[in-house]
Every structure is written in C-alpha cells, then in structure tokens.
Specification:
homodimer, 60s Ribosomal Protein L30, Chain: A, Alpha/beta knot, 2 domains
C-alpha cells in the first residue's frame, strides 16, 4: 500500500530542488536497485511488487509492498520494473587530483541521457572521479540514474566552479580539452594521468575553461567526412579509449 | 494549406509498411532537409512554413506552405523545425565487398536511436557501406532519419539475410565479430579492410552469424570494471576507431 502523501513525496523527488532539500533520490528497476543495495549508498525505503519481494526478502528491512498499478503511479519509466528505491545522497565529495588519476571534467553537459552514458563510459574505462561544472545536468536526476545502469555506484562525482577548480590543480597537471581545432589526438603524446575536459553538446568548452587548458586535442574524422561533430558521449568514449590504450 | 487526406497520407509514412508500399519516407528539420536536397536522393514534396520558404524559395519546385500548427499535425518532432520533406526511397543497393572496403554489418540492431547513431558513426569513420540483417530496425524510420543528422545521405545501406550474405563473400575476406569472449582488440592485428559485425543490444551476435565469423574480438574494459557491456553505439565507435587508427 502507498498513501497519497507518499506518492506526492516520491513524485517531488523527480525535481532537483526537492532532491536537494530532502537529500534523497530515486533509483528504479531490478538491476539498478540491486547495484545500489550492494554499494556504499544508504537506501531509505524500497517500494516493490510481490515478485521482487519474494526474491529479495532478506536484502533490506524497509520494503513496502505495492501493486503494479501503484508502482506505475510513482515510476518515471514507461514500463516500471518491479522495484523503486529511495536512496540517500552520497556524502559530499571533495575530488582532488592524485598522481596517476585520470579525471573527467564535464563542462556544461546538459542532456541527462548523455550524462548517464558518460558516467557509464567512465566506469568502463576505470575513471573513478568526475568533476562537473555547476551548469552540468544533475547526476541524481532519475533519467541519469537509469542511463548509468549502476555505474553511478562506482564513480565519484562532484559539482563545482570548474575554471577555479582547474586553476587550483598542481602546476604540472596536464589538462586536456577536446576542441574542433585541437591537435589530432592520435598523433599527440598523451600522458597517463591528468584531466580530460569535455564540453557542451552544442557550444563545446566554455571560454573560461578554454583559458585554463594546457593541451587542446581533437578527434579526427576519417577522410572527408562532412560531419561537423560526434555526439558528446561517443566523443568521450573515443578520447577515454585513447588515453587508456 | 494541407488537406485532411494529405495529413493522413503523411502520417501513414510513420509506419514501415506504408513507407515500403509508397516507396517514400520523411525527413524533418532545416539541417536534415538541407542535406537531403544537396544529396542524390529525390525529393517528392516539401511542406514548410513561410520563414523557411523565404530562405529557400529557389531550391525546389514542389513546396507547400503550411502554418506552424499544420506542421505540428504532420511532424513526429516535439518541436517541429520549419520544414518536412517527403523523400523517395533510394535505389536498391547491392552492397558487395571490394578490396579496401571496411563494411559494417548490423545483426539485429533494434533501437532506432542506436541505429541512427551507428550510421552517423559510420559516416564519421568514412565507412560507406552498411549491411543490415532483415531483423534490424528500418533505417528510413523517421526516428532513425533524425538521429543520423544527415549521415544517411552519405552511407549506403542494404537489408539482407546476413548469414548468407557473409557466406558469399570471397574466402579471404576477414569477418570480425565483437563478442564478450573475443580476443582483446587492442592486442589483435586488425586488417585494413573487411567486415565488422555488431550484434543486438541485449543478445549480441546471433548464433547463425557467429558461425561464419573469421575473427572474434572484444573491447576490453579497463581494470576491474563491473560493467557487463557498453551501449552498442559506443562499442561500435570504439571498434571503428581502432580499425581506422
């Protein structure tokens, strides 16, 4: 059973301001909730249908059984998948650059789907630290949480004023930016550690961040492609692959 | 002006069976329609608002001026963008492998967004030939056309029975499949030409196609990533990059 007030409360967590106020966010679906249960995140409540509870009775104390119809009323998914968890915000991260780190810096990534895919890519490439400009989409937006497919539980994310964060890095830290007029990354000697800055879907890296880059690189198109640019998540995967290669 | 019958006809082209019957498909938006006008495709009709017509009066004879409200009634986009074109099917392709070709083979890619992104990636990497299993999503689906961002005008696509198409290739043609248990592609000597098979989002490459592969490769995750797999479009971009590198 779920009360009207609970439905109202859960729906409020679809919005960033209420997530921040309550310090709670939502994760949905069997696979993703399972990853959060196994992770360091603290779960506040779980809403699940009988089938899920039968398979997961021991994993968590505070489980509310709901009907599929009730799950529909609180889910953001077109086809809700058995379970929805209310998860507590992670502790504030204070991401610093340590020698050997490869850090991804997101300069105003706006689309939640792109952000989720980028977090998933970071996880694939063993990148544990992502620093986001304050203008980047909220990583705890339910759409982002779904798109990360659980990768969120393994990657640390901090929001900050990006230009000043970069300025405070040790002088020797390489800061790479991906730009349309940079040097061909396949012909550039890339370092093992450093910061990789990825820019906005339409406008690329902001002028303030461009000023504090130490290296400007580009992903070359093959032959005479007429394409102006790649999707930002695709571009991020190609750059991460080249650094890790 | 647009009649009720025209609206009905245009909406029917959202469905694959009517597209095949009429041999027509839809392309929307200023940038994408512009790419089709400049391409080898034949355009049958254009529906556009006054603003677009003012800027493009000379480009095409058969332009119907419509109101923004009328454009809304025929568009699949949430925010229709000035113009919608009815485009004739391309001539039947008969894709063959020529020495030096890198061909992408799609084995049951189901999501139109993934298919569109993959076509865009092919264009970026100068791959001009894509062969699709008959079970792959329709590349002339409006969602795919939009996601390709015009790349569709520069890449040839044929649908066929994929296992038998591969069987008919010259014996010496390398056929690479991306599989979770393949050889690390960064440690494999990749050929300059050949066929790269990409499998279904959930189930990978079908057993019939696996049988006719000559090489099995995988994209290694870095370190101890818990991720089971990458999104298929991301994986395709990483493989194409490695072949073109």
């Amino acid at each position: 059973m779920i009360s009207k007030n609970q439905v109202k409360f859960l729906k409020s967590l679809h919005q960033s301001k209420y997530r921040r106020k309550e310090q709670l966010f939502l994760a949905e679906g069997v696979k993703i909730v399972d990853e959060f249960i196994k992770s360091n995140y603290s779960i506040k409540t779980i809403y699940a249908i009988e089938e899920w509870i039968d398979n997961n009775a021991d994993v968590f104390d505070n489980i509310n059984e709901v009907s599929l119809k009730e799950l529909h009323s609180i889910s953001l998914l077109k086809t809700p998948n058995q379970v929805l968890a209310v998860v507590e915000f992670p502790e504030d991260k204070n991401i610093v650059f340590d020698e050997g780190d490869l850090i991804l810096a997101l300069d105003t990534i706006q689309d939640p789907g792109n952000l989720g895919t980028i977090i998933r890519i970071a996880d694939w490439f063993g990148i544990k630290k992502i620093i986001c400009s304050n203008e980047t989409a909220d990583a705890l937006n339910p759409k982002v949480v779904q798109a990360t497919m659980g990768a969120l539980t393994r990657v640390n994310i901090e929001y900050t004023d990006l230009p000043s964060w970069i300025t405070k890095l040790p002088d020797t830290t390489p800061v790479y930016g991906t730009l349309l007029d940079g040097d061909n990354m396949y012909e550039t000697d890339l370092s093992d550690d450093g910061v990789i800055v990825v820019g906005n879907e339409g406008n690329g890296i902001t002028p303030e961040v461009q000023k504090v880059l130490t290296h400007r690189i580009k992903i070359p198109a093959y032959g005479n492609s007429m394409m102006e640019s790649l999707n930002v998540a695709i571009a991020t995967s190609l750059v991460c692959a080249e650094f890790r290669r």
